[in-house]
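for the record, two folds in this file. i put them one after another cuz i was lazy. first one right below, seq on top, structure tokens after. the second one comes after a little note so u can tell where it starts
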Amino acid sequence: MHTPRTIAFWDDPLDPPGGGQFSLLTLLTHLDRDRYRPEVHLFGGPSFRALLAREGIEARRTGLLKSVFYLFRRRPDLVHCNIATSRRAWILALSARLAGVPFVWHVRIIDSAGWKDRWMARLADRIVVISEAVRARFAAERDKTVRIYNGVDMERFARVEAEYAAEEGGAERGFRIGVFSRLDPWKGHELFLDALLKLGEAGPPVEVWIAGEGDPRYRARLEDTVRRHGLTDRVRFLGHREDVPALMRQCDAVVNPSIRPEPFGRTLIEAMASGAAVVATARGGAREVIDPEKDGMLVEPEPGALAAALERLRHDRSMRSRLAANAWNKCAQQFSAEAHARRVMDLYAEMCGDSATEAVR
């Protein structure tokens, strides 16, 4: 039996953790430890480090100089960098090149960083992009890119499904809508609230859960909008939550109302795995995840279009059920954590000269 190869991961986490951190966690918990041994290095991010620890994954707090010394002293089999274009990422890539260590750059942001992207792309051996929308950043280095969609832990959502199965067929309740994202203007919460105001009075009563944290000033602005329009009895701000699967499972619809293109839209596949109907603005990665009218709904980023889609779902339970069932099947087939980890491990195998189960491109 061969010794597992050492994969050194670096991240500069948001605190609280964002979608990039949860995607990395999903990968780390699904790596084949007989083949690959992860060593995780974090520039800060105490909340993410604690989250990893709960999953039995040790993460080392590091600094830039310490990271460079590690690369030259330890020379892992491969570096997997989960950091956006930055001085830290660039120095890590350059150090790996000088140390002779293969460098994989995992890119989760859709916006170009211009010449900084070009320098990073030249230093990286391979660039993992999470969607075709993100791949467009790297036209000049397209041959280095490999698209690997994010994955979701279907078993985690299945446990929640079993927990709430007893509630099915219970007392009639209203139409519950969930929005799960960081509180940031480009995530479209204001667009969503404008759409909410356009919903009619007829039909099941509407309840809204908004989960996530971010800029306190932006949250205050959203809360003020809710108060001014008399929506306080319908809209709840839940803050940062770690029980997202349980919350999504209790929603009839999950909305991703981003006003700028999403790189992928991790919330989308989590909602698909939870059994909720999904509505998203037709920009960026959402167009790769959702097949409109089959497993979700895509709308233009304007209040009237979003309101119209929500009214359809509000009044048509059979449509909600059909979209949700198709979405769950698609998620299990295309966006499972196992499929994601398998593709990443095949890339590792290719770069380390091992045998892979499938071609990576």
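(here's the note) second protein begins now
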Amino acid sequence: MERHVPEGSRRVNDAAFSGNGEPTTSPDFAPCMELVAGVLDDLDPDGNLQTILISNGSQVHKPQVQAGLTHLAARGGEVWFKLDGGTPLERSLLNGMEIPDQKVIDNLVQCSSLVRTRLQVMRVAVDGLAPDEESDGFWTDLVRSAQAAGAKVHDVLLYGLERKVHQPGAERLSKLPAEELLARGEAIKAELGLPVQVHP
């Protein structure tokens, strides 16, 4: 950082577990969370640095993952729970995993019972077309069902296509105009009563 970052910009905002793949599938997930928490306790005793896990939530039913989430919560960290589509088919296209709706609901309820949880939602055009009202309705209904089942969603992070998607079918995806994302953010606020941050 001293060599490559200008002096006024040298800061670490958070420690994030993410990447090409699902971090919680690692057998070392819980020990890693514990290790990072210990390092940050030493380097950042005031708790200014947050730990973030970006996850599709597919492994949250496993005891070792729940143990890792407990370490995450103990230091004020949070999960960014990826929910990019309202149907299994949409989620498969965007994330490469066709997780059934009920499993998504169960995972979101479990995750949010252990650690502060925000929804991370990517909104893109498919074959040049923005998601339609039916697609948006499926997503909203899925989140409502999770909330009714006990999910405690803190807020929503809505963003556009920022980097290349590697799974099959990615060539069908394209970035949406900023005004489309902003309008969808306002709709989510109105429909679910959740705070929404939009990053076009």
